[in-house]
């Protein structure tokens, strides 16, 4: 019996098929052949593949120790320890994510502090070198606020820190030092001082929208709360117009207020409302979304996410799903299958982006 002729699939069709696959299987397909490994690792392939519908995962810690991830949709998934293959440390802290890369700090039992950038999908990881700033004596302590994002102009991922020394919080710090680390250059640079008071606020990561990192800070001697953005392109601060809060007063000064991302747009969440800036930088473009029924559920200090027209409110091990169009909560989901002590810190999307530029 004659053997059938084998069919050779054109390379462009193979590439088109691979572009449509999620990141997880693609990491395994690198072992199929050298050609496939080269194709899947190619920067242009990775950029195109980022447009694929990849799953989002939640970043959590359990009893304030390692970082874990849960897929955002399936129920009762076993948490994956993202840090089990890293050197042993006492504690990991989440500081932001961008295009599948996660920035975290690691603290060991001896008090040593280091930064890491990890792709939880591919398990690639780098340790960020020390920046050069440190505690100057026993009386002064250093606080650091972090941001992490992507600069499309230079095709580079950047870590931004705003550090300041305080004397056991007896007096406000005088200098807010801004440093930028480039993954591509593998180098820290001091880019000057911020004129805003970043100590006036909770230690939350910068919110990345429109190639800009955002924080709520204090301005002037009276500490008026404003939203500022740090552009990763020109590495400067500028104020972003805030919404009109009406009878809510100075919402930005409230502990429960936080900046969020709503469908790639900047948002402000407070109590039962989310304000969304539809056109970046335009004050008049802010619109208000009222979250009906939030007072009937127990949500304490939630993490706010947005996906497919739904606002996701995560508190502990529960995720409450609010349908913006229907103006009601659709369901609540036990995202961790009853695992106790879970605190959601953020999220990331599966990707093939490598933190190893060098």
TrEMBL record:
Superkingdom of the source species: Eukaryota
Coiled-coil regions, chain positions: none
Every F-box domain range: 3-49
Listed Pfam families: F-box (PF00646), FBA_3 (PF08268)
NCBIfam families: F_box_assoc_1
Protein name, per record: F-box domain, galactose oxidase/kelch, beta-propeller, F-box associated interaction
Organism for this UniProt entry: Helianthus annuus (Common sunflower)
Lineage: Eukaryota, Viridiplantae, Streptophyta, Embryophyta, Tracheophyta
């Amino acid at each position: 019996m004659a053997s059938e002729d084998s069919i050779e699939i054109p390379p462009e069709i193979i590439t088109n098929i691979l572009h449509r696959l999620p990141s997880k299987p693609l990491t395994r397909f690198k072992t199929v052949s050298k050609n496939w490994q080269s194709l899947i690792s190619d920067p242009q392939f990775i950029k195109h593949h980022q447009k694929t519908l990849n799953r989002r995962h939640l970043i959590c810690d359990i009893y304030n120790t390692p970082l874990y991830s849960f897929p955002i949709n399936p129920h009762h998934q076993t948490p994956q320890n993202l840090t089990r293959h890293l050197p042993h440390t006492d504690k990991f802290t989440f500081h932001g994510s961008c295009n599948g890369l996660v920035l975290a700090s690691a603290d060991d039992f001896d008090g040593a502090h280091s930064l890491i950038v990890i792709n939880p999908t591919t398990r690639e990881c780098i340790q960020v070198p020390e920046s050069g700033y440190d505690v100057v004596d026993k009386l002064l302590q250093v606080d650091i606020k972090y941001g992490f994002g992507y600069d499309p102009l230079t095709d580079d991922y950047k870590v931004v820190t705003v550090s300041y020394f305080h004397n056991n919080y007896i007096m406000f710090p005088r200098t807010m030092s801004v440093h930028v680390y480039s993954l591509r250059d593998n180098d820290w640079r001091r880019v000057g001082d911020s004129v805003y008071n970043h100590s006036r606020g909770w230690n939350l990561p910068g919110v990345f929208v429109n190639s800009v990192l955002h924080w709520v800070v204090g301005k002037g001697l009276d500490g008026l709360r404003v939203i500022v953005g740090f552009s990763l392109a020109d590495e400067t601060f500028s104020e972003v117009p805030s919404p009109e809060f009406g009878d809510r007063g100075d919402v930005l000064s409230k502990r429960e207020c936080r900046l969020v991302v709503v469908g790639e747009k900047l948002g402000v969440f407070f109590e039962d409302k989310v304000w969304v800036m539809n056109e970046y930088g335009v004050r008049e473009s802010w619109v208000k979304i009222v979250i009906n029924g939030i007072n009937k559920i127990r949500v304490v200090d939630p993490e706010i996410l947005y996906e497919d027209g739904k606002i996701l409110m995560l508190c502990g091990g529960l995720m409450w799903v609010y349908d913006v169009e229907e103006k009601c909560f659709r369901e609540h989901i036990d995202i961790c299958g009853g695992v106790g002590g879970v605190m959601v810190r953020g999220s990331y999307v599966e990707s093939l982006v490598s933190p190893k530029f060098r």
